[in-house]
Amino acid sequence: MIVNKYFFDQDSSSHWYMIPVERKEEWDLLFDLDEDDPNTWELFEKFSQYRTGGGINDIEFSLDMPVSKYADTAALTYTPTGDQFRDLTHYVSALAEEAGEACSILKRHCRGDFDFFESPDQRQKMMKEIGDVLWYVNAVAMYIGSSLEEVMNLNNEKTLDRLERNVIKGKGDER
After folding, report:
1. How far apart are CA 123 and CA 109, in angstroms?
2. Is the distance from CB of 2 to CB of 21 less than 8 angstroms?
3. Are 16 and 10 in contact (CB under 8 A)?
């Protein structure tokens, strides 16, 4: 699967890699080389920097998971069709849908179905919906050749600039 300037592929141990497109030919050569040849492993070691998180059994979960680890792990669960425009459209549309589901939880609170702040079940549902939003934000970021970290940093720069200029409240992207 190719995503903008990267492609995803697995090695023989089912570890996932996100490799720059310009290194695809070199990557493909690895699978034609003799596994017993030490040069093969030396070449393969050069690609270790592109490993995304391993196979499904290698995923480690932590309460303080770094953003890059989350992003790499989430990428293992993408199901691309091979049509970049279709995939990107799907992910952006699904992002809006998941944000709507989070809003729906608060809507039901507002109409009195439950007290959100007193309901651990609703808080859990909200966290799951926000997690789905995060998953799709990560997918969109990767499909446009960015990363979740880059999107977060850019957003912090933008909002801190607005704070500094005292324009946090207001309308429009370019305020």
Report:
1. 11
2. yes
3. yes
- Rounded Cα distance, 164 and 53, in Å: 38
Q: Tell me, what's the pLDDT at 60? A: 47
Q: Do the Cβ atoms of 53 and 69 come closer than 8 Å? A: yes
Positive or negative, the Cα torsion across 144, 7, 88, 101? negative
Angle at 60 between CA 58 and CA 61, to 5 degrees: 150
- Largest Cα–Cα separation, the chain: 68
- Helices 67-75 and 148-164 cross at an angle (nearest 10°) of 140
Nearest C-alpha neighbor of 149 from the set 93, 94, 74: 74
- In this prediction the pTM is 0.65
Token pair recorded at residue 142:
């990767």
In whole angstroms, what is the distance from residue 69 CA to residue 76 CA? 11
β-sheet bridge partners, residue 19: 7
Backbone angles phi, psi at 7, to 5 degrees: -130, 150
Return the pLDDT at 173: 75
Specify the amino acid at residue 35.
Answer: E
Determine the Cα–Cα distance for residues 135 and 78; give it in Å rounded to an integer: 9
**Residue 35, both tokens:** 């596994």
